[in-house]
Predict the 3D structure of the following.
Amino acid sequence: MNEWQKELVKVAGDMVESKERVKNRVLQQRDVKAKKPIRFALLTVIVTFCFVGFVMVQLLNKETKQSAIMFNDTQLTHFENIMRINWGKQDEEFYTKEAIERYKKVVATYYYAKSLSLQYSDAELKAVRKEHYDELFMLQQSPEYAKLLKEKGIKNYFKTYVEPLLPMYTAQKKLDSFYRGKYPTLPNGIVQEIAAQDAIRYFDKHFADQVKAIKEQKGIKNYSSNSHGIKYEGTVIKVESNAFLFVEKAIPEDLEKLSQEQIMKKYPQATWYPVLDGFPVKQGDYVSIESNRSESIDEYGRVTNYGVLNNVEIVEPTVTTMLNVQNEQEVMQFFRQTEWQPVENIGYPPDYSFILDGVRVDIWDSSGQSLDLYKVGYGMVHLNNERSVELKKLLSIEESLH
């Protein structure tokens, strides 16, 4: 008896006795001279077997539908319990929203790993079981978890809520291991985020209906907790096998004049990103990226930035015109009274750029007659109309900006 047959017996009960009763009736009808015609007896047998067949088909359909349901209310309750503890006092809709997203991530990882033909052994499954049981046991030290587990009983809670998730957690470990081989130079935390992100992309593409169904079932509309990140523009200054070094605000021409170390010193925002499948980048590409950043400190105490890349596209940096400043002393005098304000991100290339005393200054033509300026290493400043007109004259661009 295979696994499917065993599950069918659980739902329908053992059909052997029913089959024996049908068989005995047929034999009895052969031995006893019935008053009814033979064809009626045969018809009875046919109808009986058709009925049994109908029951079997219905059970098969039920089993198929059950296997197609990816989100189980019992396990969703487990994630809601976690959200209540982690997020404190919120409304019930919030807990359900966050629980669905957490549950979706776990399910997505399982199906994505399956699509990559990543398989785990019984030993690996047992190891994950022990890991999660031990974790649940340790969580009892928290008053909130202690109360929850006392009400249910830790063994009963684990068997009911956590154990059905173990294949998914085991698949997640296999996927993380696979991605560590794919991105060996990136930190483990970043690699896990990349794997989870790819799993979500795969799941959204192939199983969007299941996500939509559970959200509709729970009365949730127009909700997604996925962050789109922040957009940055800059230049790819180095490419390794599965990662590239991106420097925000650097331009391709910098590679012709400066070394990698000089570029990173000039523009402090340098970040390593994974090379996305199907979209390779090369050194010197000027790109617009959308990402979430993280930070890691290597063994030498130096800070290295790593990011999880949501999207990347090559853009044309020719919108920036490089100016050749002839009266550098006058321009320097102009900036002596300027108060630069710190800024984290601008997000788009400048209209003009020039080098002043070895430092790059970018210019944006703002609304009206005013200008926005960014001085690398100093910050941003917005010039009023009068000061903007004065700078345009000093740089001989008064006819160009309007």
